[in-house]
Amino acid sequence: MRGLLFRIYALYRDGFAAMTLGRDLWLIVALKLIIMFAVLKLFFFPNYLNLHFATDADRAAHVLGEITTPPAPRTVRHE
Predict the structure, then answer these.
(1) Domain range for residue 22?
(2) How far apart are the C-alpha atoms of 24 and 60, rounded to whole Å?
């Protein structure tokens, strides 16, 4: 098992070492992911629990209620 893991690691190590254009493309992908998950989260996704609940117990009770209660049945209107 250890030999298999080392062979897989060596495959990726050698592949990334021999890359020229791919290295630049991976850098672009990494930067885009950082922008998407770090920067956008700061501006568009405020911390709902910290804004609406004062204590950890209140936050825990809200989360527990949200994940354990089934959603209300949807009513469909036919026109």
Answers:
(1) 2-68
(2) 44
59 touches 53 (CB < 8 A): yes
pLDDT at position 76 is 79
* In a domain? residue 77: no
Tell me if 22 sits within 8 A of 30, measured CB to CB: no
Decide if pLDDT at 70 tops 80: yes
Q: How many domains does the chain have?
A: 1
What's phi and psi for 19, nearest 5 deg?
-75, 145
Which residue, chain included where needed, has tokens 């298999």? 4
pLDDT at 19 over 90: no
Torsions phi, psi for 29 (to 5 deg)? -60, -45
Question: Does residue 49 sit within a domain?
Answer: yes
Residue 32 lies in a domain: yes
